[in-house]
Amino acid sequence: MLNDIQEVLYDEGQIQAKVKELGETLSRDFGGRNPLVICVLKGAFVFMSDLVKKMSIPLEIDFMAVSSYGQSTKSSGVVKIIKDLDASVEGRDVLIVEDIIDSGLTLSYLIDVLERRNAKSVTVATLFDKPARRAVDLEADYTGFSLPDEFVVGYGLDYAEQYRNLPFIGILKPEVYQK
Ligand code: XMP
Ligand code: MG
User: Could you tell me which residue ranges the Phosphoribosyltransferase domain spans (predicted)?
Assistant: First the structure.
């Protein structure tokens, strides 16, 4: 598995330090608001799990699964809800937790859905961002790291469902997905 990684971009220590910093900032900004923290499955599950442990305020969590990629490394632009929330977002301060923003299509669709369901506010925290690849005008409210335009895996991110369990984020060797 480690043989398939061309370069580690951020190691475990760097990621954990950033997640702690984000958790502390979010605790300050969402204190007293009992936010509904939404994990966008599957990729955000690792970040979500570490992040909420660094948030020292009352909050609720829920999960949503959307698909936009399938087995490919490029966005199809088509977003589908695979698993919807259990909770109602009406009147709630919602915090969307994303693993990575690439084209921005997934996120713009999600924000739209939650706003139409009358969330009181919709805020986005993403650990990784690839600003060079944006297809829609959209920025996260909280971003961990900006990444180069390379396909990355680890810390929740996959290629064909593999590599999610790596504790760091790295660039996948192109020969792995060009096979
Ligand atoms: P969009 O293009 O809608 O994409 O912003 C967001 C979703 O695409 C996935 N994604 C990646 N997954 N390595 C991955 O493993 C990547 O480099 C990558 N870029 C985008 C991811 O699921 C994200 O939620
Ligand atoms: Mg994926």
Answer: 9-159
d(CA 30, CA 87): 19
Q: Is 126 in the pocket of ligand 1 (CB under 6 A)?
A: no
CB of 151 shorter than 6 A to ligand 1: yes
Task: Confirm if 16 and 25 have CB atoms less than 8 A apart.
Answer: no
> How do residues 157-173 score in pLDDT, each as one tens digit?
999 999 999 999 999 99
> What distance in angstroms lies between residue 143's CA and the mean position of ligand 1's atoms?
15
Q: Which CATH number is 12-150's, of 2.40.10.10, 3.40.50.150, 3.90.960.10, 3.40.50.2020? A: 3.40.50.2020
ipTM of this model?
0.91
Q: List, as one string, the DSSP characters of 99-166.
A: EEESSSHHHHHHHHHHHHTTBSEEEEEEEEE-GGG-SSS---SEEEEE--SS-EEBTTB-BTTBSTT-
67 DSSP assignment: E
Q: Which amino acid is at 164?
A: R
- Quickly state the pLDDT bin for 69 (edges 50, 70, 90): low
137 is catalytic: no
